[in-house]
Description:
- With 412 residues, the protein is of the alpha+beta class.
- The protein folds into two domains: 5-211, Cytochrome Bc1 Complex, Chain A, domain 1 (2-Layer Sandwich); 232-411, Cytochrome Bc1 Complex, Chain A, domain 1 (2-Layer Sandwich).
- 44% of the residues lie in helices and 20% in strands.
- It is built from 15 helices and eleven strands.
- A hairpin with a 4-residue loop joins strand 4 and strand 5 (87-94).
- Helix 1 (47-54) crosses helix 7, helix 10 (275-284) runs antiparallel to helix 11 (314-330) and helix 12 (335-352) packs antiparallel against helix 14 (376-384).
- The radius of gyration is 22 Å and the shape is globular.
Amino acid sequence: MKYRVERLELAGGLRVLLEQVPDVGTCSVGIWIQTGSRDEPEPWLGISHFLEHAVFKGTRRRRTHHIARYLEAVGGYVNAFTTKDHTCFYARVLVEHLERAIDLLADLVLEPTFPEHEVIRERQVILEEMRLYEDTPDEFVLDLFDEVLFAGHPLAHPIVGRPETVSQLGPAELRAYRARQYRPERMIITIAGPVSITAVMSLLERYVLGALSSPAEPPLERIPLHGYRPAWREEIRPIGQAHLVMGVRAPGMLDERQYALSALNILLGGGMSSLLNQHIRERYGFCYSIYSFYQGWEDGGQFGIYAGVEVRRLDRLIGLIWQELDRLRQQRISSRLLEQAKAQLRGALWMGMEGTQSRMMRLGKDELYYRRPVPPEEVLAGIESVTPEQVRQLAQELFLEEAFSGVVLRPG
């Protein structure tokens, strides 16, 4: 597939990226805000996620039920998510309803009203969401791992916030945070579909550009990652098995070794053929779920391993994991195994190019981290450039026992 992307930077700093995808019947639109849980002041922990929910509770032109029906009535959908470092509102519709999608997203992001009774009700929904996470140990343990790995830094805080902070947030705080963070220079609009930049700009002029404003107050300052001190933590929970996450800080998205990091993750725990799955789940039958993960941001990242196991086998499991980590540190990865990992990365890239939503998401993430669209050919070249020695060097740098942090949830 050809990669046709146009990028515009408008007055005030708003960035617009359009990937023209011919011969498809849908368009996907995203409005991205460069603010997330790592940008929140301590008294407002969870406000980015709360705001993402609260905009759906009413706008200048729509009430809650109107928002829900506006795209569903024509076969489309709208949704949103919050991460540590950004928030995204997105929609997918048939091509002929692109105007509806842009109209609705602009209304949500630029003109929410935060009606008090709706905000109070949604606050209770988020508190229930927190309880759901706590009752889902394989997810809750990941938040605890962030607390340990990034202790003393905003990345340690859960995206949903904490009950004691979210309980104190209301319409006034939401308006203040939105006014300060939802500003043109922190905003990106990405679109993928069979449409022209002329048509897109006409819609943006009608629904977006006139509603933008730049407050005099500067945005909240983002704190860069700083010193790391490894630590381990254990908690007792009324659960049926032990849940383990162990890992280390890792290079970020701007590091030239990102492709080697992705390959290392695939090799270690990225699928059924990975070392962890084959050598621990398949050989010993210890785990139903075991995998590795890599998450990067501009200024750093994390590389970790998750496993759920019967508590009497926990120590043995940790020993087996260290055997695999030591194997990667001490032995050169075979060209065959590395080629399998590269094939998985290539496949994920091309399969992600088959839908307008995944293309739109890719545009947004590229702009967030690189401030430019990254062509698939460049990604493929990066994947192909990874060597067995680069993977081994990364393993030797990252997989040091004294550098690892971890969290264990034990049944009790």
